[in-house]
Design goal:
Blueprint (H helix, E strand, L loop, with lengths): L3 E10 L2 E6 L2 E5 L2 H12 L3 E8 L2 E2 L1 H8 L3 H9 L8 E3 L2 E5 H20 L1
Parallel strand pairs: 1-4
Antiparallel strand pairs: 1-2, 2-3, 5-7, 6-7
Length: 117
């Protein structure tokens, strides 16, 4: 049974995923491919612990994802109709990109249903 624990990090980039294990880096197109590559680097004699760094967005990036302006995003935030921010910093609120993209997909799906009626 493996007793050695090895920590690695992965982060999504524009062109895919970047994994880091000490001084080693791996780049792949998919998250699963990145984890598999890190697993091969570690070998079977260790437990691989992977920390995924979330991709964060602020109000401007959220507005760009949704095709809105910043003011509309803040209106939805103030009404409680937007995903909860991951953190509220001095520079403003930040969200996980995945949460904002899921919100955008859900809005498009609901808007499409309204039009189809």
């Amino acid at each position: 049974m493996p007793t050695l624990q090895v920590r690695a990090t992965i982060v999504r980039e524009d062109s895919g995923w970047l994994g880091r294990l000490g001084d080693e880096e791996v780049r792949t197109k998919t998250r699963d491919g990145c984890v598999s590559s890190l697993r091969r680097l570690v070998g079977d004699d260790a437990v691989l612990i992977v920390e995924e760094t979330p991709d964060l967005v602020g109000v401007s990036e959220a507005a760009a994802i949704l095709g809105w302006d910043r003011r509309r995003v803040m209106t939805y935030v103030s009404r409680g109709a937007f995903p909860a921010p991951l953190a509220s910093l001095a520079a403003g609120r930040v969200w996980r990109r995945d949460d904002v993209e899921a919100f955008a997909r859900d809005r498009r799906r609901r808007k499409g249903r309204r039009i189809a009626r």
